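Mods, move this if it's the wrong board.
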Amino acid sequence: MKLYHSPMAPNPDRVIYFLRAKGKLEAVELEEVSIMKQEHKQPGYREVSPYAQVPALILDDGTNITESRAICTYFEGIFPEPNLMGRDPKEKALIEMWDRRVELMFFIQFAGWFRNAHPAMAPLEVPQSPEAAAKSEKAARKMVERLNEHLANSEFVAADRFTIADITLYITCGFCRVMKWAPHKELSNLGRWHDEMTARGFAG
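Not the wrong board. Structure tokens:
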């Protein structure tokens, strides 16, 4: 298997951290793709990922899989332990619920802020929109507050144990560095959770 990834980019990091948590990072061949150099938009890479997305996974039979959550789902199936996506229908639903909340209401909102406000993104986001940036920033900050409240009574994001939802939140908090924002340093419950996740060593 070959995994195309971009170091420090959140969606590729999600898959890398997932594999690391599985103890299976060595099971894939890694190939770097530079987003800032727009290598993901080159014709050769579009043959791998038609929508110019990173990460992308190429299976041994030639099947191409994009979307970080889908790639993680594949790895969950072939590397079932440790379980990170749920052992029964209830647990699977709860984990996916929280993972989607983090992805849609925090990560995607923060990405909108970053893409529309950071000077380095100007060549990729044409035109940038200050209004969209402000709206996305407000939504991201609001969701962080809600996650902080949730973590007041929960050691983990979902299912009372470490799951993909923790990975998604962890990589999103790390992504916030690009806007010089560290929400885990501002909110106590999120900070406690972040320290515990870092101590686990799953993020390298």
